[in-house]
Amino acid sequence: MNEKLNPNFKELNISKPTLKALKKMGLSQMTDIQTAVLPKALSGDDIVATAKTGSGKTLAFLIPVVEVVVRNLNDQIPVTLCIIISPTRELAIQTYTVLKDIISFYNNISSTLIIGGESRKKQSEHLFNGVHIVVATPGRLFDHMRTKEFDYKNVSCLVLDEADKIYQYGFEEDLKQIITRLPKDRQTMLFSATKSETTEALIESAMKEDVHIINTNEDNDKATVDGLKQGYVVCETEYRLHWLHKMLKKSQKQKVMVFFSSCKSVVFHHEFLTRYCNLD
């Protein structure tokens, strides 16, 4: 699909502060996945969407999530209306960052990030005081759902991002328990890069019968859009840092995201690259 044919965000029935935030982010036209998902999602329908990495799927579920909150806002203590589940803390942080941008022009929408590696006590306080949107990883979310501090009986929208990976990373039982505990009349949106037996099982357990199946992948064997260049280096463990530094130096004029397997690894590499390699 030619991107020029895709409609503008202004054509959607979304709130002015949301449009203002999108404009500030430099976004006007929708991507293919946003064009396919947003009208149905904004109508409250259940969605199962398969979209490649880099396709714009994050906004495809964040915009409807924000609109759900806008429609249900009141002057009382905030209650949790929407939950977004990500398979990893890194993806949850990334999603939460985009969410903060989207709600930047609202002064009455609250959100919180519930992930491992952070203070469970502070998270409990945020949930107890009331928060509209929760972005979380499955394990830590289920921990809080088993406490009296977290009231989730008003949740009307659940998003499962990278749903196939949630199972892949061993959160199958946690996710089943989460889905069972949430209100049955909620809207559910499931997103994944590829279609698998895992997503089929989730559709049966978590979705309504009249779910909309959306697939914007022209080639299901590819999990990323054509515009993303991919490559790899095979090397011994002791040379990984050398090659990482070499690749980053070569790409200094570009924006680069580097993912590591742990928080400690992130801290180490950040300190090393900024202190000794003049990279920041």
UniProtKB/TrEMBL annotation:
Q: What is its EC number?
A: 3.6.4.13
**Coiled coil (residue ranges):** none
UniProt key word Ligase: no
Q: Which GO terms describe its molecular function?
A: ATP binding; hydrolase activity; nucleic acid binding; RNA helicase activity
- CDD domains given in the database record: DEADc
Q: Where is the DEAD-box RNA helicase Q domain?
A: 7-35
InterPro entries, sorted: DEAD/DEAH_box_helicase_dom, DEAD/DEAH_RhlB, DEAD_box_RNA_helicase, Helicase_ATP-bd, P-loop_NTPase, RNA-helicase_DEAD-box_CS, RNA_helicase_DEAD_Q_motif
Give the Helicase ATP-binding domain ranges: 38-213
Which parts of the sequence form the motif Q motif? 7-35
One biological-process term from Gene Ontology?
A: regulation of gene expression
Please, which domain of life does this record's source organism belong to?
A: Eukaryota
- Please name the top-level EC class of this enzyme: hydrolase
Q: Name one GO cellular component term.
A: cytosol
Q: Do you know which Pfam families this protein is assigned to?
A: DEAD
Q: What keyword terms does UniProt attach to this protein?
A: ATP-binding, Helicase, Hydrolase, Nucleotide-binding
Its protein name is RNA helicase
Its organism's taxonomic lineage begins at: Eukaryota, Metazoa, Ecdysozoa, Arthropoda, Hexapoda
